[in-house]
Amino acid sequence: MKSDTQKPHCTDDTFRSTAGRFAAGEDPAKREQIIDGAKRAFMKFGFDAASMNDITREAGVSKGTIYVYFQNKEDLFSALIEREKGLFASSLRDIMAGRTDTAAALHDYGVAFVHQIVDTDFILALRTVLGVVDRMPGLCQSFFASSPANARTVLIEFLARQCALGLLVIDDLEIASRQFIELSTGAYFKLKLFGEMATRPPEEEIIACVDSGIAVFLAAYGAKAGRP
């Protein structure tokens, strides 16, 4: 009996939906459909418990079609994480594009980051990543690495522009970016990660938390901040 994770032989039916339009495994809409189905399966069952059969049902495609696009469940999970990271980073890049008012831009970035923590399945995805760290260390490294598809990279780029304009003075952009995210998100990240956030914090509390973090950050890195 064929195991659930064994890669089946592909048949002509595998390529029928994309014949004449895309080569096998290159239809972006089909790829997104599979990733969407995988996301629902992983969120519903968890990475370890979710089977390729579960993903097949959620995605509404054949198992053969899935294997045309992805080698295995691990490959599919990696693609899902990269997509979600990229979407969030892209939304933040839009927020920060062309901004020169440091405090206002940092406010919008910080509020968007907190919303990502408290209003989406970001933390659930992170728990899943942490659950496979021993078996897939590369995935965890990719999740946190600074890359174009990373929220922290967007912040580093903004801070570098502000430094070039003389509005901030920062010696280590990597450290400063991590500090701002910690300051602006407060304890929300850890509270949500460890299941200690019973209810969503009020919006005014989120804004107050972000703005207090900005005040501390600018006191340390603002161009007019006193330095020894």
Report what the structure shows.
This protein is mostly helical. Helices cover 64% and strands 0% of the residues. The chain has eleven helices and no strands. The chain starts with 27 loop residues before the first helix and ends in a 7-residue tail after the last helix. The relative contact order is 0.10. The model is unreliable at 1-19 (pLDDT under 50).
Keywords:
228 residues, mainly alpha, disordered N terminus
SSE ordering: HHHHHHHHHHH
Strand percentage lies at under 5%
Average residue-wise pLDDT: 85
In angstroms, what is the radius of gyration?
21 Å
Residues in helices, as a percent range:
55-70%
Query: How would a textbook summarize the main sheet?
Result: none
Distance between the termini: 72 Å
Shape descriptor reads elongated
Which stretches are poorly predicted, pLDDT < 50 over at least 5 residues?
A: 1-19
Estimated structural class: mainly alpha
- Count of individual helical segments: 11
* Total count of strands: 0
Short description:
The chain is mostly helical and 228 residues long. It has helices at 28-45, 52-59, 63-69, 73-96, 102-119, 122-131, 137-144, 151-164, 173-185, 188-193, 203-221.
How are the SSEs placed, and which strands pair?
Elements: H1 28-45, H2 52-59, H3 63-69, H4 73-96, H5 102-119, H6 122-131, H7 137-144, H8 151-164, H9 173-185, H10 188-193, H11 203-221
Helix pairs in contact: 1-2, 1-4, 4-5, 4-8, 5-9, 5-11, 8-9, 9-11
